[in-house]
Amino acid sequence: MKFHLVSGACGFVGCNTVKQLLKRTNDSIIMVDDLSVGTHPSTWLKDSTTKKLKDIEIFGKDERLFFFKMDFRKFLNKLQDEPNWLEKEYGLKIERFADAFHFAAIVGGRAKIEGDPMAVALDLSIDAEFFNWIAKSKPERVLYPSSSAAYPINMQTESDAVALKESDINIDGFTLGMPDLTYGWTKMTGEFLAKIAAKNYGISIVCIRPFSGYGEDQDLSYPVPAIAMRAAKKENPFEVWGTGKQGRDFVHIDDVMDCMFLAMDKIHDGTAINIGSGKLTSFIDLIKVFTKFAGYDPQIKPLIDKPMGVHSRYSDMSFVKEKLGWQPKISLEEGMKRVYDVAIERLKSGKV
Ligand SMILES: NC(=O)c1ccc[n+]([C@@H]2O[C@H](COP(=O)([O-])OP(=O)(O)OC[C@H]3O[C@@H](n4cnc5c(N)ncnc54)[C@H](O)[C@@H]3O)[C@@H](O)[C@H]2O)c1
């Protein structure tokens, strides 16, 4: 039996990956999350049948989802100290993990990235443990989520913004710029370690640089569902962080998943690829999309003391199209409509 490993499995990208693995395979999945941000699997799994096995939980009627609520570093330390720990303690005989997806990280959005950069720097310690572990245990394939935050910030200013290409970061050719704070530095370091993992340890690994991923199952602390909810409530004046002219590349999580799984099949040498829509949308334009759904035209109220990050961050998707033959399928309007419909449902059910 194959076992996949998903760290940060209860966060936004992690839980979507688990759902995809359930759909795409019949394999077993080890999920690790300390629930510092993510929510318990019973809140997002369709089949939340649960069975306890000592301090872990097994989900689903077919019992192929194993949930370890713990710090991922502790999980890896236990595996390193006692390689047969999972078999001895839980009867899980895993000679070698199949796919290892590493989503455990302190992310937290703009307020956290700017407001508590040292907390975000802890990602270096989570990633260091992960890369050490893969070098020793050699899972069949590894997915490392980097981020568009790894790109040089001087390419994202109001006057100089360009569509960001993978070649704008060239670790092998020594072309690096200044990434976005500690968050971006961590991702850049992760990409460097991924290259070393492939080259020096023979690991099959791919890095992805998702731009602004969003989805209808995202928590209201994320900007897209929060804006959708405020539009559903017909907020007027409509508050926006910064001037609202800053732009991002919004990409639906289903597209992220689609591209990620394809990339794992096709890339093995640590190469990093963009996952974006290739389009720049300002926050004001995003608000207009939602308020159009809601059928009103509010006054925009900029909150200029709030953090707004770089001015314009968007992807050039031509390398992905060329290398993987992949293009995003979900338009901004379609994806945002899905988020808006969920906001309306949440409002009606009083779940906000
Ligand atoms: N969401 C996006 O659009 C996006 C874009 C670029 C990159 N990424 C990257 O993808 C990864 C996942 O992002 P996300 O949006 O799902 O974030 P998230 O905050 O929703 O999920 C992270 C999960 O990790 C868990 N976690 C944190 N520290 C942990 C630890 N020490 N041990 C165990 N679990 C821990 C949290 O509880 C949470 O469930 C991150 O590395 C992030 O940088 C995401």
From TrEMBL:
* Classification via SUPFAM superfamilies: NAD(P)-binding Rossmann-fold domains
Task: State the InterPro entries in the record.
Answer: Epimerase_deHydtase, NAD(P)-bd_dom_sf
Q: Which domain of life is it from?
A: Bacteria
* Ranges of residues in domain NAD-dependent epimerase/dehydratase: 5-276
Entry's family note: Belongs to the NAD(P)-dependent epimerase/dehydratase family.
Q: What is this protein called?
A: NAD-dependent epimerase/dehydratase family protein
List the source organism: Stygiobacter electus
Q: What broad taxonomic lineage does this protein's source fall under?
A: Bacteria, Pseudomonadati, Ignavibacteriota, Ignavibacteria, Ignavibacteriales
